[in-house]
Design a protein that fits this description.
This protein is an alpha/beta fold. It has 9 helices and 9 strands. It has one domain: TIM Barrel.
Length: 257
């Protein structure tokens, strides 16, 4: 059993135009009844603002790094996105985290940081320095859940992240709501103006995928592609796609030129 009962499942992120697997997001899980994996969101919510939240972030990074190394040994170079909480991004804990991540992350290209709870960042300048340091070392940085939060645009202005993730709450209704569609189209255009790649979360229908591709969205993540799965199943799933003639996996997530 993993430490503290926490373990990770991985959801593929694919290129909109080709279906190529370019990355995966690590999603925390805890054991449920009869071995069913449950979301650990409630656990992270209870830990928010405490030292436990920082410990959980480090546990996720450690497990994700191990999975990425395991996949690499199988010939799959797939970067893993991990969510970093506002607690870890507080000035005192962030300085320790920066030193720690340099020791844990064997191959920076196999790890990407997703900044969540952006509106709760206490010291934007300190986090901006962390983002710049990650980018300099080859670690991608994503602004997660874009569009949900009072300070989203201000954070986008301050942090030089290279990936933007559109929250599922904008993706789900975009094919039936013209206002939502207009917002998503402008988000994509704005991100590209800032040399950021765009990942749409919660893509569950062929119609949404087709709309997003036409609008210029770079990457998809959601049940239309695959549900989150354990790291060994993820590797087998990727190998199955490869044998079935799907594109090779492991291309970098980069903004279009």
């Amino acid at each position: 059993m993993p430490v503290n009962g926490l373990f990770l499942h991985y959801q593929p992120i694919v290129a909109a135009a080709t279906g190529e697997v370019v990355a995966a997001e690590a999603l925390a899980r805890i054991p449920g009844v009869a071995g069913v994996a449950l979301s650990a969101k409630a656990l992270f919510t209870r830990a928010s603002g405490t030292a436990a939240a920082i410990a959980l972030d480090r546990l996720v990074v450690t497990q994700a790094s191990a999975a990425a190394e395991c996949w690499r040994s199988l010939g799959l170079r797939i970067p893993i996105h991990v969510n970093i909480s506002a607690s870890t991004l507080e000035p005192r804990s962030l300085r320790d985290f920066r030193r720690w991540i340099a020791r844990v992350c064997v191959d920076p290209a196999l790890l990407a940081m997703e900044i969540t709870e952006a509106e709760q960042i206490a010291d934007v300048d300190e986090v901006a320095a962390f983002v710049d340091d990650c980018r300099m070392r080859g670690i991608d940085v994503a602004l997660d859940d874009f569009g949900c939060g009072s300070s989203t645009l201000a954070i986008m202005q301050s942090l030089r992240a290279n990936i933007l993730k559109i929250d599922r709450r904008f993706v789900t209704p975009l094919c039936r709501d013209v206002r939502t569609a207009a917002i998503v189209r402008h988000i994509i255009d704005l991100a590209h103006e800032l040399d950021m790649a765009v990942i749409a979360e919660g893509v569950e229908t062929v119609e949404a995928a087709a709309w997003l591709e036409r609008a210029g969205c770079d990457y998809f993540q959601g049940y239309l592609v695959a549900h989150p799965m354990p790291h060994d199943e993820f590797a087998a799933w990727c190998e199955g796609r490869r044998r079935g003639g799907s594109p090779d996996v492991g291309a970098p997530v980069t903004a279009p030129s």
